[in-house]
Amino acid sequence: MTTATPELLARPISDFIPHRAPMILIDSITRHQPDSLITQTQISPQSAYFDETQQGVPNYVGIEYMAQSIAALAGVEAILQGQPIKVGFLLGSRKLQMHQHLFALGHTYHTHVTRLYQEESGLAVFDCQIFHQNTLMAQANVNVFQPDDSHSYIKDSHSA
What is the annotated signal peptide range for this record (predicted)? Predict the structure, then answer.
């Protein structure tokens, strides 16, 4: 598989993920290699879920930083293959560890995602880590599912 060019990675994050504002929680892609990606998130008072009293974003939002980074990897891969961006589903996580209680105001975080396994069905497992500088802030193995046709999948799940 091809590695994305710096010009491709400089595009707005909304080009790579199916989310729309205000639910886009990651800011940009900083690095891509086959099966892995790094995104960046800057915490500001405008960040989704920002808590003024705590002066940061609660740590549980980290799982969504991980999920959106996985979606961004899928989006980069789709664009490189000339395919449309698809909706995926966060199924759950294993070995989730949060090493702090919040993502602090003014700090920049880097979310690293690496594909460990993927089935033809669209089921995949990713190793995810969130860093502030060189300090590990959160980690998990995240399970996701990306069907070929999400609309049919949702429609079929409602009629079952």
Answer: none
